[in-house]
Amino acid sequence: MQKMLFEDIYKTYWQKVFRICMGYVNDSNWAKDIAQDTFITVLQKLDTFRNEAQIGTWIFRIAVNNCLRQIEKTNRLPKTALTDNFVEPESINLEEKVILLYRFITELKEIDRIIISLELEDVKQAEIANIIGISEANVRVKIHRIKEILTLKFKENG
Amino acid sequence: MDSNIDFKNIWQQQNISQPNIEEILNKLKEYKNSSLRKLIIANILLITTSGFIIFIWYYYQPQFISTKVGIVLIIFAMVVYLFVYNKQFSIFKKIDNTLTISKYLQNLSALKRKQKFMQTTMIRVYFIMLSTGLGLYMYEYASRMTPLWAILAYAITFIWIGFNWFYITPATIKTQQLKLNEIIYKFKTINEQLEEKSHK
User: Fold this and answer.
1) Contact A147/B3, CB-based, under 8 Å?
2) What is the mean pLDDT of residues A10-20?
3) What would the pLDDT profile of A42-87 be if each residue is shown by its tens digit?
4) How close is the nearest chain A Cα to the Cα of B37, in Å?
5) Among A97, A101, A102, which residue's Cα sits nearest to residue A27?
6) DSSP letter string over A11-24?
7) Minimal C-alpha gap between B82 and chain A (Å)
8) pTM exceeding the 0.95 threshold for the entire prediction
9) Percent of residues in chain B assigned helix, strand, coil, to nearest 5
10) Which of A151, B48, B58, B151 would bridge with B3, disulfide CB 3.0–4.6 Å?
11) Taking CB atoms and an 8 Å cutoff, what residues of chain B touch A14?
12) Residues A20-33: pLDDT tens digits?
C-alpha cells in the first residue's frame, strides 16, 4: 500500500525535484544524486508525514535542505565557471537559453537559488514561504528582485 | 523593468530520464549498510583492544596498584571515545530534514558546533587519559628493569606520546577545525540571507 503511494510520488515529483537540485548545483550528475537522496528520505519518512502540509511542500523541503547540506561536501564545488566550455551529454539537445538560465540561477545566493527554483516550479508563494520559513511578502519581493537580476543577465548575454 | 522572458517555460525544459525506482530502493539499502558497517568496525576495534588489555590483566596478574589504575584508565579512555563516536553518529541520524530551511540550518549549525567540541576537547581528554594510563601501566614492568632500561623505556614512550600530542593531534585538529569553521561560516551566511530584509 505504502509502496504504491511512493511510486506515485516518485513519478509525479522526480522531474520537479531534479530541476530544483539542478538550479542549486547546475551539474546533472550531482543534481541527480541529491534528488535520489531526497526520495530516499521521502521513502524513509513517508509514514511520519501527517498531512500538516501539502505533500509537495514536504518533499520540496527535504529537497532544498538536502541542497543546503551539500556545503559539507567541500570537495564537490559547483562548476559554474566550467559551463561555458563544458556541455554535458544530457544538455546537448537543450536550448542555449536553458543552459544559460540554470547557470545564472546557480550564480545567485543560495537562498535566492532555492526561491526562484520553487517559483519556476509553480509552487505557490505561500508554500515557498512555508518551505523556507520567511514571510510571504518577503518571498514576493525577493522573487521580483531575482527575476530582475536574471532578465538583466540575459540581456547582457545577448 | 518587467521581464518579458518566459522563465518558467525555459526552466521546465530541463529534464532527465527518471531512474528506475529499484535504483532508489537499492541506494537506501546500500546507505543503511555502509553507515552501519562503519559503526560496527569502530566498536569492534575498540572492544577487542579493551578485551585484550583485560586479558593481560587476568593472565599476568599485575602486582602494583599503578598497573591496574593504568589499565582502567586506558579502557576508560576507549570507552569515552566510543561513547562520543556513537553519540555523534546518532545525532547525525536525528537531524530532521523535513523542517523549514531556517530551522534546519539552526540544527545543522548546532550539530557542527557540537562536532567541533567533540573533535577538539574530546580528542585531548582521550589522549591525556591514554598517556597517563600507559605511563602508570608501564611502571611495574619498568621497576623490574635496570635503571638505564627503565629510563629508556619511559623516554621512548614519552617521545612517542609527545610527538602525537605536539605534532599529530594539533595537525589533525587543525584540518578538521578549518573544515568545520568553513561549514559553520557558510551556514551563517545563508542564515543571514534569510534574515536579510528586501531592500526594495
Assistant:
1) yes
2) 93
3) 988 888 887 767 889 999 999 999 998 888 775 555 544 444 444 4
4) 19
5) A102
6) HHHHHHHHHHHHHH
7) 24
8) no
9) 85, 0, 15
10) A151
11) 18
12) 999 999 988 999 99
CA distance A131 to A150: 22
What letter represents residue A66's amino acid? N
Q: Which residue in chain A has the smallest CA separation from B95?
A: A65
Q: Residue B15: how many CB atoms within 10 A of its CB? A: 14
- The tens digit of pLDDT for each residue in B8-21 reads 888 888 888 888 88
Q: Following CA atoms B76, B80, B82, B87 in sequence, which dihedral angle do they give, to the nearest 10 degrees? A: 160
Query: For residues B52 and B34, what is the distance between their CA atoms, to the nearest angstrom?
Result: 27
C-alpha cell at B187: 551556514
Phi, psi of A13 (to 5 degrees): -105, -10
Domain limits of chain A? 2-156
Instruction: Specify the range with the lowest mean pLDDT, choosing from A9-13, B10-14, B87-91.
Output: B87-91
- As for the ipTM of the complex, it is 0.76
Nine-digit cell string for B78? 576507549
- Grid cell at residue A88: 554535458
Would the CB atoms of B102 and A132 count as touching at under 8 Å?
Answer: yes
